[in-house]
Amino acid sequence: MNSMNNKGFTLVEVLVAVFVVSIALGGAFTAAQLSLRYSITSQNRVVAFYLAQEGFELIKNVRDGNFQENLNYWLEYLDECEDETCRISAFPDLDNTWETISLCTPGSGDCLLRMSDDGRMWHTTSLLVTPFERYFTIEKTIDDEIRVDMTIAWTQGSNDYTFETVEYISNWRGDHTDPQ
Q1: Is residue 13, in this structure, part of any structural domain at all?
Q2: Long-range contacts of the stretch 152-160 (C-beta < 8 A, 24+)
């Protein structure tokens, strides 16, 4: 009888071994899943950073365009965003109407960025919807300076994320002051 017991594993030993292996594999799969989720979150944070930076650069382009066109006010086209929430796009709408700046309401869908087939993102109504919203407000700090609060918001799974940053933009020419 002893020689028979030494030749194989009992059912209890097999079940214990299967349980231990399944616990180890379950932990590895959980770690891989969390790693993937954190990787996607990190990627979205980087995209949000660059979308915010692009928004600031677009606002500076509007300011510089006002100088170039010799407009009387350096914040022309931006003044509607003072104490209001606005969106800004880098590219024209599909009908070639330049849709640079307009009011929007966060969470309503009109601040959402959409992506074209070539990877460019802007606010329009008929492209692939991205999870990212870009919006900003402007506050005058002094005559020749504004504070721009830029927000990038997105949903990933059941979690909502925001990336908020501030930049001060000045009237570097010193002319084109507020007509008020």
Answers
A1: no
A2: 152/48, 152/49, 152/51, 152/52, 153/106, 153/111, 154/44, 154/48, 154/130, 155/131, 156/40, 156/41, 156/44, 156/131, 157/37
Beta-sheet pairing, 86-88 with 145-156: unpaired
The rounded distance, in Å, linking the Cα atoms of 135 and 30 is 36
Please state, in angstroms and rounded to a whole number, the distance separating the CA atoms of residues 101 and 121: 14
Q: Cα–Cα distance between 88 and 59 in angstroms, integer?
A: 8
57-109 pLDDT, tens digit each: 999 988 888 888 877 788 888 888 998 999 988 765 555 545 578 899 999 98
Q: Which amino acid is at 74?
A: W
d(C-alpha 40, C-alpha 156), whole Å = 9
- Per the structure, the count of domains in the chain is 1
pTM of this prediction exceeds 0.70? yes
Inform me whether the pLDDT recorded for 17 exceeds 70: yes
Which residue in this structure is represented by tokens 């001060």? 168
Instruction: Map tokens 């944070």 to a residue.
Output: 45
Contact 139, 82 (CB under 8 A): yes
Domain region containing 155: 46-170
Instruction: Identify whether 176 is part of a domain.
Output: no
Instruction: Determine, yes or no, domain membership for 22.
Output: no
In-domain check, residue 39: no
